[in-house]
């Protein structure tokens, strides 16, 4: 049954127990004051106030596109007003020789895959300047997290052609992962090269974390940075934004190098984004940003060197966008002529070749000649040919190696069970069934660690 409730009068003792406005902990009862600034203030920004209703679509003044930094023109001559970076003959020749080496190595391994002698490969055709120029500007102990088209920078650090071949063939001398990774997924503790993984863009937030680890290490803070390479297609992933957000706000000394080569597999950059490339995203995260001609090795070198300096001195992210062109197919799993005309590729190779541009610069300085070029190419072809023949003859790692170093520390129970099961199968079929006997002969030890 409904019963009415008596409402107390204002003189009731309940009123005396209610807190006064000035004693409340909430903010709703705060008395507003006259602002001292006539235009008022913004709670989370120092942005200036304007009375004009104006939308903008550019990070530069005058609604213009971001400029591209360049040192050399197509003929290898410094453009007007350009300052050639300080570079001696020895470093210039080292950079050039690695640029020449890359397409020779790429062509050999690409053809080996087509012959069925390795399972996969991915080339750097057309991007030699972007890769070598940036790699040359780094310290040898900077931590690099690459995508999969930066083998030239790893070779520049001292990784050998034999190391490349052993990884691609998966031999027992594979220092990257003892045959556990697919070809072209290199790694090296010695050269501070974090092992490449196939999933797109995962290395970007990981690099921000590596930068944070460097920041926390008193022996490396202010000395090194983390460096992450990725394509403009990877920048469409959420991991790109997560990595930049972390490295800019924590902040961490992480250098982001975007290779904008025009294609994310078959998707052209015009369909990847509507804004002004990848560089336009840098200011949104409050980081220093530069766009550079990725076919000009001196411009890439100078831009990366300065970016690294800022990254380490300020301890926060820096973004470099290299504008280049992917001359080769995305990988051996791709036929790029299905989505772009062959003539476009041939024109790019002829009219804007990064190797030729740098060669003309060296010849103009008297640092290089046609005879030296012929000898260099001949020597690299012989070196690469001999290296792949050596690797092809080597056995694969011992069978039991597939279970080692998958995880750090003690081997987990599930791997122990799998290893025991494989041992039972090898003991049952390894000596009697020809397909298993033939497969075991490809491995160092022929599976004897399970048969004995």
From TrEMBL:
Keywords: Oxidoreductase, Thiamine pyrophosphate
Keyword hit for Glycoprotein: no
Catalytic activity: N(6)-[(R)-lipoyl]-L-lysyl-[protein] + 3-methyl-2-oxobutanoate + H(+) = N(6)-[(R)-S(8)-2-methylpropanoyldihydrolipoyl]-L-lysyl-[protein] + CO2
Start-end of Polar residues biased regions: 31-45
GO biological process: branched-chain amino acid catabolic process
Uppermost EC category: oxidoreductase
Region (Disordered): 12-45
Transmembrane segments: none
Domain of life: Eukaryota
Cofactor: thiamine diphosphate
InterPro entries membership: Alpha-ketoacid_DH_E1_comp, DH_E1, THDP-binding
Dehydrogenase E1 component domain mapped to chain residues: 96-398
Pfam families registered for this protein in UniProt: E1_dh (PF00676)
One example GO MF annotation: branched-chain 2-oxo acid dehydrogenase activity
EC number(s) from the headed UniProt entry: 1.2.4.4
Function: The branched-chain alpha-keto dehydrogenase complex catalyzes the overall conversion of alpha-keto acids to acyl-CoA and CO(2). It contains multiple copies of three enzymatic components: branched-chain alpha-keto acid decarboxylase (E1), lipoamide acyltransferase (E2) and lipoamide dehydrogenase (E3).
Record-stated family: Belongs to the BCKDHA family.
Name this polypeptide is given: 2-oxoisovalerate dehydrogenase subunit alpha
Record organism: Ganoderma sinense ZZ0214-1
């Amino acid at each position: 049954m409904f019963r009415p409730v008596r409402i107390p009068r204002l003189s009731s003792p309940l009123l005396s127990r209610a807190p006064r406005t000035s004693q409340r902990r909430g903010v709703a009862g705060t008395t507003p004051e006259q602002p001292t600034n006539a235009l008022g203030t913004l709670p989370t920004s120092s942005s200036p106030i304007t009375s004009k209703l104006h939308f903008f679509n550019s990070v530069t003044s005058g609604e213009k596109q971001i400029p591209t930094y360049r040192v050399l023109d197509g003929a290898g001559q410094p453009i007007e007003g350009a300052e050639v970076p300080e570079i001696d003959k020895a470093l210039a020749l080292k950079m050039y020789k690695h640029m020449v080496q890359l397409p020779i190595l790429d062509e050999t391994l690409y053809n080996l895959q087509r012959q069925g002698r390795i399972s996969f490969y991915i080339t750097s055709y057309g991007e030699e300047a972007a890769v070598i120029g940036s790699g040359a500007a780094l310290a040898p102990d900077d931590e690099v997290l690459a995508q999969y088209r930066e083998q030239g920078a790893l070779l520049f650090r001292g990784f050998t052609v034999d190391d490349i071949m052993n990884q691609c063939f998966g031999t027992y001398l594979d220092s990257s992962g003892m045959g556990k990774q697919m070809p072209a997924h290199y790694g090296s503790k010695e050269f501070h090269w974090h092992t490449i993984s196939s999933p797109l863009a995962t290395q970007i937030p990981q690099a921000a974390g590596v930068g944070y680890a460097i920041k926390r290490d008193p022996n490396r803070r202010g000395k090194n940075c983390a460096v992450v390479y990725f394509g403009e297609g990877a920048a469409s992933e959420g991991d790109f934004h997560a990595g930049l957000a972390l490295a800019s706000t924590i902040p961490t000394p992480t250098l982001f190098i975007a290779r904008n080569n025009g294609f994310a597999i078959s998707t052209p950059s015009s369909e990847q984004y509507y804004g002004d490339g990848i560089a336009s995203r840098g200011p949104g995260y409050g980081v220093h940003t530069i766009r550079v001609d990725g076919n000009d090795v001196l411009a890439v070198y100078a831009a990366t060197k300065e970016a690294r300096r800022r990254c380490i001195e300020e301890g926060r992210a820096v973004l470099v966008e290299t504008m280049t062109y992917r001359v080769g197919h995305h990988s051996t799993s791709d036929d790029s002529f299905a989505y772009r005309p062959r003539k476009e590729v041939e024109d790019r190779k002829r009219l804007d070749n990064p190797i030729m541009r740098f060669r003309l610069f060296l010849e103009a300085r008297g640092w290089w000649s046609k005879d030296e070029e012929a000898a260099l190419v001949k020597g690299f072809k012989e070196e690469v040919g001999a290296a792949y023949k050596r690797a092809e003859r080597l056995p694969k790692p011992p069978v039991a190696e597939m279970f080692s170093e998958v995880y750090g520390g003690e081997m987990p129970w599930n791997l122990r069970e799998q290893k025991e099961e494989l041992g039972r199968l090898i003991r049952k079929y390894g000596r009697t069934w020809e397909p298993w006997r033939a497969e075991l002969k490809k491995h160092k030890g022929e599976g004897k660690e399970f048969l004995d």
